[in-house]
Amino acid sequence: MSSFRFQKYGDIAAVRGFVKGDTVFLYKPEDIETVFRNEGTWPERISFKSIEYYQANVRKDIYDDLYSLVASNGKDWHKMRSIANPILNQIRSVEMYIPEIDCVSQDFIKRIRFLLDNKEEGMMPESFLNELNKWSLESVSFLGLDKRLGCLDNNLDSDSEVQKIIDAVHKSLEYMYKLEFELSLLQYINIKNRDEFVKHFDVIKNAFSKHIQEAKIRYENSSSESNKSMLQRFLSVNEKVANVLALDLLAAGVDTTGKSGGAILYFLASHKRAQNELRKELVTLLPNKDSPFTKETLANAKYLKASIKEGLRMGGIAAANFRTATKDMVVGGYQIPKGTLIHLCAYQNLFSEQQFPRPREFIPERWLRTNTSETSHKNTHPFVYLPFGFGARSCIGQRLATMELELLIARIIRNFELEWPHPPAKFTAKLFYEIVDPLRFKVKETPE
């Protein structure tokens, strides 16, 4: 629909709305920059009423006057962001987790080998995205709960706590989309969807609350004060903060990171030249398949970082950023009144020949500093590629998500050759921009 508007109306379009209010769609990078540069101290964006309802009405006893970063605006958002920033968004806070998250990635390699032993011709199962979600849940649970849940155990069944959490994340996102973007004129359908959302979100909340209580007891019985975990630092504020921020990490970090990892692997599998170039770098940095990752190793993995950036350009989950105008402004020669919803559309620019020469080609070299050709990202408008948003309201977990993806992709490409023996994958855009096809990679062990 966004592409249709761009083709029909050009760089700016407006839609009258009776549900979400009037909406403006911006496609020109200079106009997108204007909005971001004028968003003020407390930037506002479209709020998710489903989460607001859950926190303010259904579980007010837990949240009280604290609100999710995803669902809040103004002072409520600023209050939580001020607490979360020094814990989640500092480089030092992320680097301390490299060894542990690398262990999760290495366990995922073992999981792939187990799947290889149980599949013919090296093909991953149709449910491989679910395997990636297990990896992302295992990573984010260690970050947010200071505990591994055993998501990569080969003996997990469909009724395990882990699978119930993953299913609940998918279902809550499904019903959130219906509530936010497919509102029905029939009130009973909206109430049914709302109740389903609450039911599935409760599964996530109850699981995390239980593990936070267990962690709290562990900390009370421990005398160690060095290298406090993220959860310990959340709890040092208070238990409500710990519940809100840990739940934010899970709700925003499982499905999104799993899908992003799958997309990056797809582009590497279908572009063997780039995959081989990445493996060459990784063999140098990791002489053995199980050589340890350090912050120095990651810092030197230039082609790895470039591959992930290119994968997020072509297959990142965010096809747009969103803002609500906090004041009257003029953009592209048009008056946009305060309170207007603004879609800052990324997709068309990410595949624009003007911004990215040969835009449909997977070229990690675009992002290397040494690249001086026309494909260099230095020739691209700086407000085109924003996979984690911009400014004060950029994704609070972007450093964590990037580190998780770097370790995952590096371990997989160092250990396996990937192929995509299928027609090009199809993508769709609903709540996220994502691959529709099952991630049936053909996988072959690399030489030592």
UniProtKB/TrEMBL annotation:
CDD domains: CYP24A1-like. Keywords: Heme, Iron, Metal-binding, Monooxygenase, Oxidoreductase. One of its GO terms (molecular function) is oxidoreductase activity, acting on paired donors, with incorporation or reduction of molecular oxygen. The keyword Oxidoreductase applies. This is Probable cytochrome P450 12a5, mitochondrial isoform X1. It comes from Agrilus planipennis. It comes from the Eukaryota. Its cofactor is heme.
